[in-house]
Amino acid sequence: MPGPWVVVAVATFAQMVVAMSNILLPTIAPKLAESLGVSPILIGYQVSLTFGAATLATMFGGNAVLRFGAARATQFSMLCCGAGLLLFALPYVTAIALGSVCIGMGMGMINSAAAHLLVAYTPPQRRNIMFSIKQTGVPVGGVITSLTAPAIAVHYGFHWSLVMIVLLIAGLLVFIQGHRARWDSDRGVSGQGGQAAFGGVPLVWRQTSLRWVSLVAMIFSGIQRCVLSFTVIYLVAEGGMGLVEAGVMLSVVQIGGSVSRICWGWLADRLGSSLTVLMIICVITVLSTLALVFFDAGWNKLLIYILFFVIGVTAVGWNGVFHAEAARLSPPGMASVVAAGTTFFVFAGVLIGPAAFAAAYGGIGSYGNTFLLVTAAALVAFGLLLMAQRAARRR
Fold first, then answer.
1. Crossing angle for the helix pair 4-27 and 43-68, nearest 10 degrees?
2. 56, 239, 292, 349: which could form a disulfide with 235 (CB 3.0–4.6 Å)?
3. Domain match, 208 and 157 both
4. Residue 98: what pLDDT?
5. What is the average pLDDT across 366-383?
6. What tens digit of pLDDT does each residue of 15-56 get?
7. Low-confidence winner among 82-96, 232-246, 306-320, 337-351 (lowest mean pLDDT)
């Protein structure tokens, strides 16, 4: 029987592959647009379509885990991503759209399957760090794709950047198949799939602590996407930086998020409280985004690097601790369903956050001042965490 670290490795690798599939087109958008004879700006619609499909997929991701097993659901997720990548290879905009829907479906299922496996096969006292390690797959996948896909597309053609990820998917499918009988031995046992209508969203909403924590995750994911989407634009338009230097700052944000996920998980296990760690993240987010509002390119370079690293530590580093807390609050045998329900809120934040930021910028006219709304959102999240803590004490 494979140990818990094998389960963590598989869940992390699957998360990485899904992230690579999701981020691939935006990283090679100019070459792809050139090949199709369309404008690169259309990539914005592709991202929205992918996350829209992912949000809808969360509605059945939890039930799929209960019915078929977490290992098989992970394989479904990988197959969806693989199908999407193969569709991307076809020289038609329609194929790109269908491929985006497929990858979105894979994104919508992966968290439910991973949560079920980690709850079933990892020790509870180490759960925060296990979930945090799993979540590092997202930024690691993003970094790998950002570093390799553009170079492959330029030198060999964008089709070869698809091949790299398809090969990773094939390897993971074969490895999971070797352990599927054991990992899926509890499929269909709970008999609770019928109670998980709408992907566990009603289940999450009915339980007070889960409701508040999920709303916090929606705010956090909106903040994360705003930071990743508008940092470069802000630094170039108002921060006095060139595009290359602004891109370096964004990479510092990503590195901060990658490193901190494991550290936050370790701290939550050490303190025995995910909520406390999420509150600490909230406070630092308020302070760091407030500093971003008053940013000046004339500041000391080391101070600038530290600021953007800290922003990444909080805005990008919260995910693992949140997923561990959601798993802890789940009813017995329903971790996958709760993960599907909470992921719905996470994806909702991705859909709402950047759009709200862009709309607010239209009225405010300043990226720096618009980031004040991010600070305000973090304050709201802190209030929700206090409510979650109060609800937890009543249990």
1. 160
2. 239
3. no
4. 95
5. 92
6. 999 989 988 887 777 777 777 887 766 766 787 788 889 888
7. 232-246
Count of all residues that appear for the chain in the document: 395
DSSP 299: S
Contact 326, 134 (CB under 8 A): no
Q: How far apart are CA 69 and CA 46, in angstroms?
A: 30
CATH number at residue 59: 1.20.1250.20
**Total tally of structural domains belonging to the chain:** 2
Does residue 184 sit within a domain?
no
Residue type, 71: A
pLDDT at residue 189, rounded to an integer: 57
Query: Distance (Å, rounded) from C-alpha 331 to C-alpha 190?
Result: 11
Query: In degrees, to the nearest 5, what angle opens at C-alpha 110 toward C-alphas 328 and 72?
Result: 105
Residue in this structure with the two tokens 């329900």, named with its chain if needed:
341
Asked if 22 and 107 count as a contact pair (C-beta separation under 8 A), the reply is yes
**79-112 as b/e: b if 16+ CB within 10 A:** ebbbbbbebbeeeeeebbebbbbbbbbbbbbbbb
In a domain, 191, yes or no: no
pLDDT in tens, 162-221: 898 999 999 999 999 988 888 888 776 554 444 555 667 888 898 888 999 999 999 999
Q: List the structure tokens of 21.
A: 């599939």
For residue 13, being part of any structural domain is answered with yes
Residue 188 in domain? no
Separation between Cα atoms, residue 96 and residue 92, nearest integer Å: 7
Same domain? For 298 and 346 the reply is: yes
Residue labelled with tokens 């090949």:
35
Q: Which of 127, 80, 123 is nearest to 103 (CA)?
A: 80
Q: How far is CA 36 from CA 90, 95, 144, 368, in A?
A: 10, 11, 25, 36
